[in-house]
Input
Amino acid sequence: MTSKDKKLAFKIYLFLAALFITSLVVSNLIFQKFFYWNPFGNVTVFGASLFQVSVGILPYPITFLITDIISEMYGRKKANQVVTAGIFASFFSMGIILLANYVPAIESSPINDETFNQVFALSPIAVFASMIAYLIAQYIDVGIYHFWKKLTKGKHLWLRNNFSTFLSQFVDTVVVVGLLCVFKILPWHLFSGLVISGFIFKLIVALLDTPFMYLFVYIIKKRFNLDLGEEIDLDY
Output
């Protein structure tokens, strides 16, 4: 690979990492709002409405698609680096928000303290639960992806893309909802409904993003003339 190609490959990696981190941070900022989606009619589990999910779930599946793309094109090391950078960015952004909550608003401020705190007030326990679930799920996703890639010798992209995402998303949903219930942020009677709702939503998104995975991988492999299973080495 020429020096010019390597610079282009690094730029693509940089933009993917930026998109990953943005999606992760935004999901943590907006998670307090919940909405109802109704693809299969009115369904309840243990008396709880099945399809109530946080809006934080909207950008979150993007993070798993990006780690799979990075895993496929740049290898396990680069994917794990992005995951680690994401946890740092999340805690840093939470620190900024906590500081902003602490600083008192002036009388002429368009947004007063009460409104700001109502929207951005963060439960440390909720953020902790989200971050623990994120770490576990993302490292599982990367690990399983490369397990299937090695086992299939670089073939069957759909298999490793979906299997790694399905299991990691399930683990993420169970861990984050479970911790929120353990620390009494959410009542236990909502556990089953939120887990099933969140997982089904993520499952559908994971299936829908498979064509985009194929398209992106095809474009990159063709541009850099990569063989089956070959990865781009960004180390100089």
Residues 1 and 225 are 9 Å apart (CA to CA).
